[in-house]
Amino acid sequence: MGKKAKTAIVPTREDNYAEWYQQVIKLADLAENSDVRGCMIIKPWGYAIWENVQKHLDKMFKDTGHKNAYFPIFIPKSFFEKEAEHVEGFAKECAVVTHSRLEPDGKGGLKVAGELAEPYIVRPTSETIIGASFARWINSYRDLPLLINQWANVVRWELRTRLFLRTAEFLWQEGHTAHATREEAWEETTKMLDVYADFSENYLAIPVFKGEKSEKERFPGAVATFCIEAMMQDKKALQAGTTHFLGQNFAEASGIKFQNKEGEQEFAWTTSWGVSTRLIGALIMAHSDDNGMVIPPRVAPAHVAIIPIIKNEEEEEIIMEYVRNLKDELKDQVYDGRNIEVELDTRDMTFSERSWDWIKHGIPIRCELGLRDIENDSIYFGRRDKEPRDKQSMNRTEFVASIGATLDDMQKNIYQKALDFTNENTIEIDDKNEFYKFFTPKNPNKPKIHGGFAKSHWCGSGECEEKIKGDLKVTIRCIPADTVEDGKCISCGEDSKKRVLFAKSY
Amino acid sequence: MGKKAKTAIVPTREDNYAEWYQQVIKLADLAENSDVRGCMIIKPWGYAIWENVQKHLDKMFKDTGHKNAYFPIFIPKSFFEKEAEHVEGFAKECAVVTHSRLEPDGKGGLKVAGELAEPYIVRPTSETIIGASFARWINSYRDLPLLINQWANVVRWELRTRLFLRTAEFLWQEGHTAHATREEAWEETTKMLDVYADFSENYLAIPVFKGEKSEKERFPGAVATFCIEAMMQDKKALQAGTTHFLGQNFAEASGIKFQNKEGEQEFAWTTSWGVSTRLIGALIMAHSDDNGMVIPPRVAPAHVAIIPIIKNEEEEEIIMEYVRNLKDELKDQVYDGRNIEVELDTRDMTFSERSWDWIKHGIPIRCELGLRDIENDSIYFGRRDKEPRDKQSMNRTEFVASIGATLDDMQKNIYQKALDFTNENTIEIDDKNEFYKFFTPKNPNKPKIHGGFAKSHWCGSGECEEKIKGDLKVTIRCIPADTVEDGKCISCGEDSKKRVLFAKSY
After folding, report:
1. Cβ pair B74:A36 closer than 8 A
2. Which whole number is the average pLDDT over A362-381?
């Protein structure tokens, strides 16, 4: 390591990206591991981001005609067994409830008792249990489309877990819809993918690629799976949301039938789609830097931290009155339909410690105010999208009046930075050697740093897909819908009709 | 049964209260039983009420300084065993996860596999798992108070379940706080009881009695439990929310210690408090009538149903244009900080069927509009707090401009009606015979209808409490904080210092 500026996060992204990620989470108080294997605790600052994600997405779902409902957390084993591919995909890692009480074990502890006649699975996803309801609720074409969403916790007993990215329990939303025709279900699948892309780009400030998954990467039981894929700062891809066109597979498994206009019985066409607390992992890896968390203002738990700098008791009253008034003035301002949220930080720490703590937490704006600033009616502040030492002064009235515009500028800057990074590291490759070189680390000591995303031709065969995965740990992230172009497969050289997106991934 | 008007709900409240309750839920599409024993499905109309409950309560929690977080759904058995009374209270009915996968059983089905080293309990409540986090998060008096809330699902393997009132899985919020002193924790316990009472009266329009629980009715492991109790229309009590002063019991069990200002280690003082989807059961039983659901406007999923009455194709265009404009005008109005939500009902059913369907769903206002109304620019509408056939006409401009005032009037009327009913059926009783007569059904064919709530003296002994419970199935609902008055125990005749609230209960 050469000489460089001291950073708040050690190690830096360049030195050890995986450990940097853990440290950002720790120092921003976002989440922590619990005593329950693979389950995380989402701390208030992290949960507040999730609440903002929920609030915005929920409005988008409702604006597109969906209604929320709630279904049981448990799925009877027999339901789970109904769709063969589905059970195959989820049976290997699930939490199974087998008993209904604890009894004294005679040694001062407790033992399990009350064995259930049929075990229950803690839902890893709810297609089968919601399908059973849909079968009851739907009788006629008049009952369609049925557009339902659920906010819930789900459990998948993952072996290797990482905070937000892969945890045994996670929070998510799962949309489940039923339609009278194939076309309508297909349209819903692509419409919700657009909603996810819109949300990711305009709220999370994360640019995404949209497209279909290859057959190997499909949701178990789906006819087609679509996804949005985003580039993280280590140039790996993260799947940030998926939508599934389920055809009539789950309708047949659950008996979701309706009488059509001609009086005949038909199976419905269904879809499902979801995003999870994984989005917070994406947020961290897309924007944060070597000083900690960077949060786009539209999903930030709070917008402004005010840090009064009080040197002695005489100053205290005048400074505290000023900052309380400033806080009230800011709270009357509105950004993105929400009143400005302000943290007034009077903790018993030096102003520098407090300022760095807010930098690590990623609050968009922090104001450091001492007596001289107040006498000048001037606000000395730093923006989280700039360097920590890049601060500026502004007249109070102007600062308050322009706070919404400042936040909006930050939201756009953060997006633009991520977009530039993604574009810089995404290239079209038509030569096999170049492709292999692109995905081979330049520095053997840093095996995880490689080229980025490659848009290359693929013949469509599972063999070529497997070959590339085996050679490079590179997978097809998605097959974009809108490009049709003749070319030669990057692996076998056979004819190809379109470029697909290749990358290493989370 | 004598002659009476036909009602939308059969049976009526008087004929069979328990069955009436089920029918109201069914015909209002609030919820239904699932294929998972004791677990309910909350349908969109019911879930929208819960979302409104969440929105308002969440704001009240945040306004009182609490932050949301999320903790694991699973509790290791060893955690659960830490507090003796607590485990005693919950071990008899809990969902136990013992395995982590399913494997082919060789007969075409699946069998459980992957036994866990330690079983996990699906949380029935989270004191122990949250306590483990608090122990890590709290080091110094500077970390206190710690004020956390969680919105979550919990599971208690109840034998006898009833939609919303008692289900194996239910949705709730659980507040968990830690304080440096006994006084602060006690103040939090009573403050949150006040928040619950405020919410119940001002949003759910349900009057409540506040007070402490007797020792027998305390939360397992608590030093003191407080509750709000509401009278249902069968004059039984429903506990609608509880707050617990946990003393240092859970702090000792979980090791929640802090260094005080003097540099000494002390155990923290903790509280917990919760309300659940049971509140929707309370809402149904407090306000609904023999025509179905009645929902106070502040928590109603939608405010206005517009039912166009179209007699022939020629009318259709003019009527539909008018109702769409009316919908837009109404949506621009605001009531209780929320834009008016309107359902435009063009279903292929007679206008009478549609109108009755909305009555059963409890929408506050329904407008029935035919060509003649439109030609007069006049809105013909019914209010759900009045009789179904009691409708009125109003000029459109006036109707739109006064919609907020109309809803506000309804909110107050619904509360006043429930308050009058509660007051009429709550009396002070000082004579033992009178007390026994009060709680003995007047009509032996309707054993559930009895006197109501009795405010009577109690000496404080568990024996008297048990005697009354054994004789009459009547329990002490709560011990109000504010009455001190000399008297004689209604059971044993010994000295008593205060009246307590006796009732049959859910």
Report:
1. yes
2. 97
